[in-house]
Design goal:
The complex is a heterodimer. Chain A is built from 5 helices and 5 strands; from the N terminus they run ααβαββββαα. By secondary structure, chain A is α/β, with parallel strands linked by helices. Chain A has a 5-stranded mixed sheet, covered by helices on one side. Chain B is of the alpha+beta class. A 5-stranded mixed barrel of chain B has the order 2-4-5-7-6. The radius of gyration of chain B is 23 Å and the shape is globular. Chain B starts with 5 loop residues before the first helix and ends in a 20-residue tail after the last strand. Classes of the chains: A alpha/beta, B alpha+beta. Chains A and B meet through helix 1, strand 3, strand 4, strand 5 and helix 4 of A and helix 1 and strand 1 of B.
Chain lengths: 192, 222
């Protein structure tokens, strides 16, 4: 004997459909990137850069930055920051006490690159001046130099490590990873 | 007066409750914004802050050991003034490091340098202001396991340093952490292991879990 089935028999109840709709709407409003990465911003911690004093980044090169593609990498990183965010840049041929970011080469560094806040804005947790250094011995090619420049400049804007689809990932990359994802762009633009 | 069936009430409220639950979960998962540091656990004083590096993460203690020249257990001593990395003390990009003596209790891999007197010297880049002070206040007398690489002699043409021989007794090398994963301290109050360079706690384990013979890191409390 054939059992009669209703075409609606396997359809979920209306309240469940409403829940799914709510869930999708919530996920969409928060953005997938926000859910995918657990991060902090601007905390001046061991994993997150300090908030800068403002979004006008002046920068200069230390004397040993010439050669090895490091100036090119730093220039790429600054241009990318400006292209992707509301930051502005201003190259200074001479480093001075008002320069926001001083780029240096450091062949003795036990890392690919490093960001250090060297002066806080008085009475705040914001960084007035920072040092970014590169160790070309750990940067296999121009792609990786550009990636590390993007990474360290991201720290100078307050970003933390953690995303797996942009330059804030740690270590060697073989492709892409030389930009900020939308989540990080939001952090940089909104400074929170 | 209207009457409600319980089943009707539940059906009406469930979507709202699920939505609220999802919002809460999503905010907790994203962890963004102006909250505290990455982990709520760990010591109150967090040294090595305001310094971030791009490094190649090791997948296991064994791999971290392979990246190291020396792996030691020991107790940290009082940090001392280190070297000035820059063209001159007035260089706007110059930074003065701190040097933390580590009084070695056991060598897990590698060899102590000649004449070390069982103390090795860890050079750390110290950020401005409070973070730098937190190293001085927070790094002394901590038991830990340290994965170290010897800092190579610098070539002046490529790396600017004012006083290359400062920060330790004459003839002794300076070391850096092989990666930020390589500085592991025992947190006295909880007994957890705290990776200071990553701001990550490892609860319920001891330093033996990180020996360079181990093929995986224990689960972190992130």
């Amino acid at each position: 004997m054939k059992m009669e089935t209703s075409p609606l028999r396997n359809r979920p109840p209306k309240w469940m459909s409403a829940s799914l709709f709510t869930a999708i709407a919530v996920l969409a409003s928060l953005g997938i990137a926000g859910l995918a990465s657990s991060d902090e911003f601007g905390q001046c911690s061991a994993v997150s850069g300090c908030r800068p004093d403002n979004k006008a980044h002046s920068y200069c090169f230390g004397a040993t930055m010439a050669g090895a593609g490091l100036q090119e990498a730093a220039g790429y990183g600054m241009s990318n920051l400006v292209a992707q965010t509301s930051f502005t840049k201003n190259f200074q041929s001479d480093c001075g006490s008002n320069t926001d970011v001083v780029f240096k080469r450091n062949d003795a560094l036990a890392a690919r690159g490093q960001y250090v806040c060297i002066e806080k804005l008085s009475g705040t947790n914001k960084c007035n001046r920072a040092r970014i250094e590169f160790n070309p011995g750990q940067l296999a090619n121009q792609l990786n130099k550009n990636k590390t420049a993007c990474h360290e400049i991201g720290h100078s804007g307050g970003l933390a490590h953690g995303a797996n689809n942009d330059c804030m990932i740690s270590g060697h990359v073989s492709a892409n990873h030389i930009h900020y994802n939308g989540h990080h762009v939001d952090h940089l633009n909104n400074q929170n | 007066m209207p009457t409600f069936e319980i089943s009707t009430l539940i059906k009406k409220r469930v979507p709202m409750l699920l939505g609220a639950l999802l919002v809460c979960s999503a905010i907790a998962a994203s962890g963004c914004g102006e909250g505290g540091s990455g982990s709520d656990s760990g010591p109150e004083i967090r040294p090595f802050t305001g310094v971030n590096s791009d490094f190649t993460p090791a997948e296991s203690p064994r791999e971290l050991g392979e990246q190291s020249d020396l792996v030691v257990r020991g107790e940290t001593g009082e940090p001392q003034t280190g070297r000035i990395w820059g063209a001159s003390p007035e260089d706007p990009g110059a930074i003065e490091t701190l040097v933390i003596p580590i009084h070695v209790t056991n060598v897990e891999a590698g060899e102590l340098p000649a004449g070390s007197n069982e103390t090795v010297y860890l050079e750390v880049f110290a950020s401005a202001g409070a973070p730098r002070q937190s190293i001085i206040e927070g790094a002394a007398e901590e038991d830990g396991l340290f994965f170290l690489t010897e800092t190579p002699e610098v070539i002046p043409e490529t790396t600017e340093i004012v006083d290359p021989d400062s920060g330790r007794p004459e003839g002794q090398p300076l070391y850096q952490a092989a990666t930020p994963q390589g500085l592991l301290l025992e947190e006295e109050s909880s007994g957890d292991i705290w990776s200071v360079g990553e701001e990550v706690a490892y609860p319920g384990v001891d330093l033996d879990s990180f020996l360079p013979t181990e093929d995986q890191f224990p689960p972190a409390d992130e």
